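[Primary structure, fold]
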Amino acid sequence: MRSLPGLAIAFWLGAMVCFAFLVAPAAFATLERDAAGRFVSAIFPRYYQTGVVLGVVALAGCLGRISSRGWLAVNWVPLALVALMLALTLWAWLVVLPAAHDAREAMHRASGDGAAREAVRFARLHRVSGVLNGLVMLLAGVVLVMEVTRQP
């Protein structure tokens, strides 16, 4: 890896892939569903914090290129993609995650139709979270390809 942004994105993508394809499936395969949900919920804040820190590092590296090369010589696409990844991660962490947590807690407290409504709300938020994380992973892959093929 030839750059700070590329290195930060590689670590970020690695952490997301590890969690999505190793940790979460293992938790749900070995623990009872409720315990696995609590375990994964405990990891999510750290997961998003890690993404935000690595995203800020990647963004700072992209911005550093501007100061060293000038505004016109910089490829703005990686910068824009990293900024989008960071925005999506912040939205997932600060908006979607708390709403999903509230829906899950309300689902456990409620009964009958109320529990069913909260279960539907939780499922919708879970899908939104999955889409956001999948999109961030996809964008990370695009940025990595751009970084690896970038001319020095």
User: Anything to note?
Assistant: Residues 39 and 73 are 46 Å apart (CA to CA). The helical segments are 4-30, 33-69, 76-109, 112-149. The chain has four helices and no strands. The chain has one domain: 4-149.
